[in-house]
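Mods, move this if it's the wrong board.
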Amino acid sequence: MEAIDIFLYFLLLLLLLSGVKVVTTSNVIHAAIFLVFTLATTAVLFILLSAEFVALVLILVYIGAVIVLFLFGVMITRAPLGPNAELDNDQNKLEGKFDISKMRYHKIIIMTDADVDGSHIRALLLTFFNNEPFNKLIENGHIYLAQPPLFKINKGTKGIYIKDEKELEDYILNNNKEIKKIKKGTKEFIKALDLEKSKMNIQRFKGLGEMNPEELWSTTLDPETRNLLQVQYSKDLKKDQSLIHTLMGNDVALRKDFIVSNAINVQNLDI
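Not the wrong board. Structure tokens:
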């Protein structure tokens, strides 16, 4: 047996062992390192097959970029999984220091864009406040949602601000008796509604940044005119927590089952 054959068998054995360790090790950092060994061994095999370009791409793209980026991301964001005494102690210290009676401000207002993306951000922030000990802020009525408008109907020099799609539809129906006679949800109704919208000068705010300072103040910030929505738990707190756990928890299967079961009820799908 020649030396090249021995070297080839050694590479194949190394490739097999490192590949197995990638999928069997429980430590993600170790798995990434074994993946580097696997890819490097594969690159050497490509070189032996006179496929130097493929080997170079493998080294530069996968080892030089993807793996390094992956390791860097894991190292700066990783957190221990499962029970952790240090984190539990920090949580207990935080709960001991959190005294709601010492609040300097009695309203915490979450203000995001009026569109679906803004709703996603609000949901994430509310999930944070739902965790102990910050859930006391919700229980005591300190968390509010600002209600910026999504639309502005320009009528000459006058502007009418509309909160969302439903309010826009209600506005059109209240000002057009003919459309009001058509059954909601039908193709004829949707066509008539879209036609009426095309006749109106409607401005849709993509975000708060599209509003000038005067508009933002008068519609959303001015304490005299703003419309705040207080965040409250329902009377069935256990049911609330179960739903939050389903939608925002770590159990992906539970969330998937919820989406599949309720997909038939979706009316406004943002795609």
